[in-house]
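Figure 2 data, in text form.
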Amino acid sequence: MIKIYGSPLSSASRCYWMLEELGLAYQHVPLDMRNKEHKSEKYLQINPNGKVPAIIDGEYIIWESMAITSYLAKKHGSPLAPQNVEEEGHAMQWSFWALVDFQPHAVNWLVQEKFVPAEVKNEKVIEDAKAAMPRVLGVLEKGLQNKKYLLGSRFTVADVNVATCVNLLQNLGYDTSSYSNVTQWMNACMERPAFQKLQNLRGG
């Protein structure tokens, strides 16, 4: 059975989503982040980066959430995996874009909004993140033109990776309704039974 380290409320969420899409049995191994268990010598043997998520699949260890989703989809021959080199290129393109261009803004905003005490909250970080949203959402809106999903008509690992980033904005109450392609795509992603299971794991 696959062991997964990291909460469904963290960037591990996309890994849980993929595990549910594939119908794989897995065991959640909790880490006490407040007491820095993810920095313990025991965990650092699994992920020397001292971050979550990480998974252990038999004797195979892999960390970084988007690497994990890709590995799982490919290993199990899922239609969520790229079917040719062109699809793989675009799946990597969108995943890297989400990780580099989109997620940092959303995470910075989320941390300030939800976790930083009011007396030390940095409003400029929040405003900078909000200011970046039209640009990054505009890229995604254009990328979804005349397509149901990022690679075309089929839901893939690229959608899992990017949708979990956009979902951060929704959790912050950011209105994406003016981006019609993004809205339709996110609705299709969130209607999937595996996403609903992820929401249950999150407690919502």
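Caption note: DSSP finds eight helices and four strands in the chain.
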